[in-house]
Design a protein that fits this description.
InterPro entries: Aa-tRNA-synt_II, aa-tRNA-synth_II, Asn-tRNA-ligase, NA-bd_OB_tRNA
Number of helices: 13
Number of strands: 16
CATH class of the largest domain: Alpha Beta
Radius of gyration: 27 Å
CATH superfamily of the largest domain: Bira Bifunctional Protein, Domain 2
GO molecular function: asparagine-tRNA ligase activity; ATP binding; nucleic acid binding
Bound molecules: 4-amino-1,4-dioxobutan-2-aminium adenosine-5'-monophosphate, magnesium ion
Oligomer: single chain
Structural class: alpha+beta
Order of helices and strands: HEEEHEEHHEEEEHEEHHHEHHEEEHHEH
GO cellular component, one term: cytoplasm
Pfam families: tRNA-synt_2 (PF00152), tRNA_anti-codon (PF01336)
CATH architecture of the largest domain: 2-Layer Sandwich
Subunit structure: Homodimer.
Largest sheet: 8 strands, mixed
Strand content: 15-25%
Shape: globular
Length: about 475
């Protein structure tokens, strides 16, 4: 296989060399004397121009080289006559690896709506936009591993099937092998999960954190990067039922160390994409500009995509407590305009996405780290502050995205933890293994979770989380 990738053809000198390329036809323009075929092989957003002389290549083959067809083309790299590209491939032989009947192939060389492309998610990776998104997604995933590896963190694989609900929100997908039409029943007439595969009730994990904490109590600094599942019925542009989460967990870190790490980490992976995905990000920047120009002037983002990414990397995030944020929100609506009537009146309520967006996009105009939330709106494992009302939580809010990270310093004191679990009705017997970490060699520790797709959304400038994962799982959608 002498296949040369288009990315390499464009970056190295192949002039006068004999090569094979393989890829998909994006467009073909023909006249009597010559055909120009724009080929894409996924290695780069850029197409490579192939020149086919009808005296050299059979008519039938050229006829079959339609948009979407897969071709192997052998020939010589020559200097390009036209503008735009330095070199082009003079075809000596074209082999049609797979036809794409133009009457039936859904992806024609025109602009398709993202909604339409979502319905053909099995083919959309062949478009410029999705090629770019998935290459950037890949680069970000790589940057995540590189960041933590360079810092000496260990990658832990936490289980997908579990018996716990770390966040305690009750939004789990059940896992069972029982025949639920005719389940075995116990003495009380309830489904007898003792007879299930794991001899207990199980579900898909909502977070790898609890197991991550166990690992950090021996390896000190670890991270997870895996799929997590939430059966929350939220049909929004920011929620998936199956999403990937990165969860570092660090022994000996306090809340501030946690914030410092999170900020440094976010800046690192964004910089990595800026440095390594230039072509794709330039393309996505233009795409985002087009989208913006369709919006009403007052709804347009103040910065372009690349500008926004650089801004986040270059500026310190704003840090403030929940209580301070409530004051900002209260003062944001001095005239009590109707639009903001529902703004926090009362300390203790959870922030809605409108509030988060106000803080990030209108007030501070930069990423915000919000800390020390009321304990009643946060999970049981967060460390209680001395005021008795708040916990050492942190959420990081990003422009255009809202919450991108949730994390906290953990409650390492056994008595405080069990007391909180009691208050929140969390069965301690079932969590004996978790409590053991506080019984034996406990130490202050902290961690956070980054929603990977929300990060990909931010970096690609796409508007809907369904468009940054290859096969989105959302309410009603699990076809392919
Ligand atoms: O804030 P969350 O629920 O925090 C946790 O799961 C903690 N156990 C993390 C930790 O401390 N180790 O979720 C973390 C992040 C959110 O900030 C958000 O970015 C993302 O996960 N997220 C989702 N992303 C897509 N779809 C959903 N349904 C999401 N739910 C949360
Ligand atoms: Mg959260």
């Amino acid at each position: 296989n002498k296949r040369v990738k288009i990315k390499d053809l464009l970056s190295d000198d192949f002039l006068d060399k004999q090569v094979d390329i393989m890829g998909w036809v994006r467009t073909k323009r023909s006249n009597k004397n010559v055909s120009f075929i724009a080929m894409n092989d996924g290695s780069t957003i850029k197409n490579f121009q192939v020149v086919a002389d009808p005296n050299q290549i059979e008519d039938e083959t050229l006829r079959r080289a339609t948009t979407g067809a897969c071709l192997k083309i052998s020939g010589k790299i020559v200097a390009s006559q036209g503008a735009g590209q330095q070199a082009e491939l003079l075809a000596e032989k074209i082999e049609v690896l797979g036809d794409a009947d133009p009457e039936k192939y859904p992806l024609q060389p025109k602009k398709h709506s993202l909604e339409f492309l979502r319905e053909i998610a099995h083919l959309r990776v062949r478009t410029n936009t999705f090629g770019a998104v998935f290459r950037v997604r890949h680069a970000l995933a790589y940057a995540v591993h590189k960041y933590f590896n360079d810092k000496g963190f260990f990658y832990i694989h936490t289980p997908i099937i579990t018996a716990s609900d770390a966040e305690g929100a009750g939004e789990t997908f059940k896992v069972t092998t029982l025949d639920l039409k005719n389940p075995p029943l116990d003495d009380q007439g309830n489904i007898d999960y003792k007879q299930d595969f794991f001899e207990r009730e199980t579900n898909l994990t909502v977070s790898g954190q609890l197991e991550g904490e166990l690992a950090a109590m021996g390896l000190a600094e670890i991270y997870t990067f895996g799929p997590t599942f939430r059966a929350e019925n939220s049909n929004t542009t920011r929620h998936l039922a199956e999403f990937w989460m990165i969860e570092p967990e660090m022994a000996f870190y306090d809340a501030e160390d946690n914030q410092d790490l999170a900020e440094d980490f976010l800046k690192y992976i964004i910089s990595y994409a800026l440095e390594n995905c230039q072509d794709d990000l330039e393309f996505l920047d233009k795409r985002a500009q087009e989208e913006e120009s369709n919006k009403k002037a007052e709804q347009r983002a103040e910065m372009g995509l690349l500008e926004r990414l650089r801004f986040v990397v270059d500026n310190k995030f704003e840090r403030l407590t929940y209580t301070e944020a409530i004051d900002v929100l209260k003062n944001s609506n001095p005239n009590k305009k109707k639009k903001f009537q529902y703004l926090i009146e009362e300390w203790g309520a959870d922030l809605q996405s409108e509030h988060e967006r106000y803080l990030v996009e209108k007030h501070f105009k930069k990423p915000v780290i919000l800390t020390d939330y009321p304990k009643d709106i946060k999970a049981f494992y967060m460390r209680q502050n001395d005021d008795g009302k708040t916990v050492a939580a942190m959420d990081i809010l990003f422009p255009g995205i809202g919450e991108i990270i949730g994390g906290s310093q953990r409650e390492e004191r056994l008595d405080k933890l069990t007391q909180r679990m009691e208050e929140m009705d969390i069965p301690q017997e079932e969590m004996w293994w978790y409590l053991d970490t506080r019984r034996f060699g406990s130490t202050p520790h902290a961690g956070f979770g980054l929603g990977f797709e929300r990060m990909v959304l931010f970096v690609t400038g796409m508007g809907n989380i369904r468009d940054v994962i290859a096969f989105p799982r959302t309410p009603g959608n699990a076809e392919f």
